[in-house]
Amino acid sequence: MNNLNSITRGISAVIIIGAFIAQMNDLISRHIFTSLLLFAVSIPQLYTAWEIYYKNDKKWNLTSIAMTILGVFCIISAVSIYIIG
């Protein structure tokens, strides 16, 4: 695990912990909480997909495609929940 991978997972962990603390103290609403969690999940997914893509001589494989779709879906869902909620 390289430094950038650790940084992306650390950022996600901070977002998740901060969202839980804010939700428990009623500082944010449920839809913002859900959006933050989905966004936090997408960060390491997209980084890992990018890393697999470049380690595989810039060729897509099933894992990198699936992780990219999951990451983009999480971001789209987070934005949709934030706008609708």
TrEMBL record:
Transmembrane segments: 7-25, 31-50, 62-84
Record bears the keyword Membrane: yes
Superkingdom in the source lineage: Bacteria
Keywords: Membrane, Transmembrane, Transmembrane helix
Protein name according to UniProt: Uncharacterized protein
